[in-house]
Specification:
With 231 residues, this protein is an alpha+beta fold. Helices cover 22% and strands 15% of the residues.
Length: 231
């Protein structure tokens, strides 16, 4: 009787919040692939700035770039994410982004709108199946709601600038302090699903991983180097 109930319950558990979030990440990953297909292999920036007719600038979020490739912007919300933060604003102008955004891009794949950083091309990435494109976003604490994550210090090095990978200990301390001032991986919701979090890889597959599994020095899945700064 127990084994029969287990078989019946398994599909129901998969249909719950963790399974739905996994599916949302998969769908957004597919949209990222379609975006690159349409734009000559280039990935979007995590955010960039667009000058408005009023003369003010509006911040354009990566979710707004991928929205045309999705049936609904509701997939940008993880059902297990309880937060409903207001849409960020720049000088009084609301960002162009999904109404609720539970996911955060990896700067090594989707850099900021800084003028010295160029969009990343598929051709820049040797092993896309081993490179995280985006993760689940942490909503607790005073974290920047529009910004991405990086496994490097500094988080967005300029071409030729010296940088290094962050350590597991540095990330653990930043997560405990709920501070993204220096270590940007504090912006990841590391334990949203029973100690795991969902990650989309650049080539399209999704994995649920623990914090320590993403920071193995011999397997740098946040990037073996900072691709936007590549010459």
């Amino acid at each position: 009787m127990v084994s029969i109930l287990s078989l019946i319950a398994s599909p129901l558990l998969m249909a719950g919040k963790p399974g739905l979030c996994f599916d949302h990440v998969r769908r957004i990953g597919g949209a990222l692939t379609m975006y690159a297909d349409q734009y000559d292999g280039l990935y979007p920036r995590s955010y960039e700035y667009s000058r408005q007719p009023t003369g003010r600038y509006r911040r354009i979020n990566w979710s707004a770039r991928l929205a045309p490739f999705l049936p609904s912007q509701s997939v940008f919300r993880c059902p297990a994410d309880p937060s409903r933060p207001p849409i960020p604003r720049l000088n009084g102008v609301a960002d162009a982004q999904a109404p609720v955004l539970s996911y955060v891009p990896n700067y090594a794949v989707m850099p900021t709108g800084a003028g010295y950083l160029h969009p990343v091309s598929r051709q820049d990435i040797d092993d896309p199946a081993s490179l995280i494109a985006f993760a689940e976003r942490q909503s607790e604490g005073p974290l920047k709601p529009y910004a991405g994550v990086s496994a490097f210090l500094p988080d967005s090095p300029a071409p030729g600038q010296t940088y290094r990978r962050v350590s597991l200990k540095e990330v653990e301390l930043a997560v405990a302090a709920k501070s993204d001032q220096t270590v940007k991986l504090a912006r990841v919701a590391w334990r949203r699903h029973d100690g795991l979090s969902n990650f989309a890889f650049t080539e399209g597959h999704v994995r649920a991983l623990a914090l320590s599994e993403t920071l193995i020095p011999s397997r740098p899945i946040w990037g073996d180097h900072f691709y936007p700064s590549s010459p």
